[in-house]
Amino acid sequence: MSLLEAHTILPLASRVRENRNIPEVQQPAVEQARIEAQKQIAGLQAGVKAAKDRTDLQGRMQLEGLRLGAQIAKDRRDSATKAKPQPTSKPKEK
């Protein structure tokens, strides 16, 4: 038996044996508890995903704001340099 099989199959087999030892009267309660735990886990996972998505969106919005600000500053700089009259230099006569 490989190391991988020993780590995956044996623990599962022991859990199956444990479930067989539970009296039939308690099995529905155990199953219901398992379902409730799965619902809680799914709810927590959804909450974590929503928080992560919200954080990612905020980061993207901030980055886009910085890009826009940089573009505005660049456009203002370009328009200011175009609006300024360039000093005209006359050729010197000798």
What does it look like?
It is a single chain. The protein is mainly alpha-helical. The chain has a domain of 34 residues. Helices cover 80% and strands 0% of the residues. The chain is rod-shaped.
Percent in strands: under 5%
**What is the 3D shape?**
rod-shaped
Helix content: over 70%
Report how far apart the termini are: 101 Å
Give the count of helical stretches. Answer: 2
Would you report the number of β strands? Answer: 0
Return the string of H and E elements: HH
Unreliable spans are: none
Radius of gyration: 35 Å
For the sheet with most strands, the description reads: none
Structural class computed from helices and strand pairing: mainly alpha
Determine the mean pLDDT: 79
How does the SSE layout of this entry go?
Elements lengths: L2 H18 L6 H57 L11
Keywords:
0% strand, rod-shaped
Please outline what is shown here.
The chain is mainly α. The chain has a domain at 35-68.
